[in-house]
């Protein structure tokens, strides 16, 4: 005799977006903490400046969600994202937050377990792609924390998302 067990939902779609946006809010505060010159120039041990890491994040979240909604395996690209000031970077960050909100809402909850070929390279369920976006942001924000501490600047508390 076989027993079917219903899969319990641990976190819902709205909670996942709120979690992600909490991370984005914290990363925004890390960007704000940098002196403008250091945001674009300072690095440690040959790593990229934090502005470059933020540009990478801007090139992933919104464009990837747009591709998921459109079911288009578009290649990864940072083309056209080249802010020259902290204000311009923050403006792009805020616009991308709205893009994420808009496209996230267009993904039906039942589609999150469907696979998607992210950037034509990675074939995973949509929810795993979103976890990748969050994990990548946490990873790069950690680099930003190292930079801020090397500059003797107190980074925002990581738990205040």
TrEMBL record:
It comes from the Bacteria. Gene3D superfamilies: dinb family like domain. Pfam families: DinB_2. Residues 21-143 form the DinB-like domain. This is Damage-inducible protein DinB.
